[in-house]
């Protein structure tokens, strides 16, 4: 239970949260708070084995959520927890993998939510810092510098970790963008190694196969709107879930048999 998470204000206006009751929203936030920040293991005392629990996942039960997380609050019952989990799964917020002894939850796109930094937030935070006393400003600056340095070091360590097929997908996206570009939308001389590494993150951290990524690239670059938005692998990763919802909606209108889950 060490460390911290990011919770962007825009979550209040998201389509998912707008469909939840106040109690369901609170349970969803608690799930994010309790999900693994790093890969780890959980000990299954019944089978006497260690169960891998990856970043963004957690092992929990309805009873634990109701009685441990919320200390038996009468407003949050096991039935309400069950209803909330099913609703969150239906809204593609998480997946539920039940077993005989425990339930594994996985927050979808956890890495996207936790790794992206909003530039406007940085500006706001800087302005707020300026109005604080000098001593507090120095402490905040030192802390931010340390976090920025750690993030930069982590990025450098991962920068060139990609497979040949990741590079091929990066090149595929680049070629599509060049073909679709009308001047302003053309991408000139991107860092292809950085692009390939971002494809790797989609594959490893977001758990998408090469075939799924390839189809998502093709779908986005043949869509009248998304081809103007998806101009880099990082944007593809950021908007993947939103495109998924768009594709599903389009399929219902056209009775297209292509399944977005295959993309």
Explain this structure to me?
By secondary structure, this protein is mainly α. The chain is built from eleven helices and five strands. It has helices at residues 15-18, 22-34, 62-69, 78-90, 110-115, 119-130, 134-158, 164-180, 192-204, 210-221, 233-254, and strands spanning 40-44, 49-53, 57-60, 94-98, 103-107. Strands 3-5-4 form a three-stranded antiparallel sheet. Strands 1-2 form a two-stranded antiparallel sheet. A hairpin with a 4-residue loop joins strand 4 (94-98) and strand 5 (103-107). Helix 3 packs across helix 4 (78-90). It is globular and about 60 Å long. It starts with 14 loop residues before the first helix and ends in a 9-residue tail after the last helix. Residues 116-132 have low confidence and may be disordered.
Helix/strand/pairing category: mainly alpha
Flag low-confidence runs: 116-132
The helix/strand series, from N terminus to C terminus, equals HHEEEHHEEHHHHHHH
- The rounded distance between the terminal residues' Cα atoms is 35 Å
- Helix count? 11
Which word captures the global form? globular
Share of residues in helices: 55-70%
Strand line-up across the major sheet: 3-5-4
| Mean pLDDT score | 78
Secondary-structure blueprint of this entry?
Blueprint: H1 15-18, H2 22-34, E1 40-44, E2 49-53, E3 57-60, H3 62-69, H4 78-90, E4 94-98, E5 103-107, H5 110-115, H6 119-130, H7 134-158, H8 164-180, H9 192-204, H10 210-221, H11 233-254
Antiparallel strand pairs: 1-2, 3-5, 4-5
């Amino acid at each position: 239970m060490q460390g911290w998470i990011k919770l962007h204000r825009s979550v209040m206006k998201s389509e998912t949260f707008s469909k939840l009751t106040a109690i369901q929203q609170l349970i969803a936030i608690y799930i994010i708070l309790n999900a693994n920040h790093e890969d780890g293991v959980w000990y299954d005392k019944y089978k006497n084995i260690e169960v891998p629990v990856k970043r963004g996942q957690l092992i929990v039960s309805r009873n634990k959520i109701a009685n441990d997380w919320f200390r038996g609050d009468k407003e949050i019952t096991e039935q309400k927890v069950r209803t909330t989990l099913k609703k969150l799964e239906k809204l593609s917020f998480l997946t539920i993998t039940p077993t005989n002894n425990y339930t594994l939850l996985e927050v979808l796109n956890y890495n996207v939510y936790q790794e992206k930094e909003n530039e406007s937030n940085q500006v706001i935070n800087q302005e707020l810092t300026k109005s604080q006393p000098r001593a507090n400003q120095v402490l905040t600056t030192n802390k931010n510098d340390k976090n920025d340095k750690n993030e930069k070091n982590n990025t450098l360590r991962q920068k060139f970790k990609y497979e040949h097929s990741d590079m091929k997908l990066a090149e595929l996206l680049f070629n599509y963008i060049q073909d679709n570009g009308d001047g302003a939308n053309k991408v000139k001389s991107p860092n292809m190694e950085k692009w390939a590494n971002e494809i790797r993150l989609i594959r490893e951290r977001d758990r998408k196969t090469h075939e799924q990524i390839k189809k998502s690239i093709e779908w986005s670059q043949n869509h009248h709107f998304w081809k103007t938005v998806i101009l880099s692998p990082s944007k593809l990763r950021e908007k993947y879930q939103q495109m998924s919802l768009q594709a599903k909606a389009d399929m219902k209108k056209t009775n297209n048999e292509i399944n977005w889950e295959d993309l």
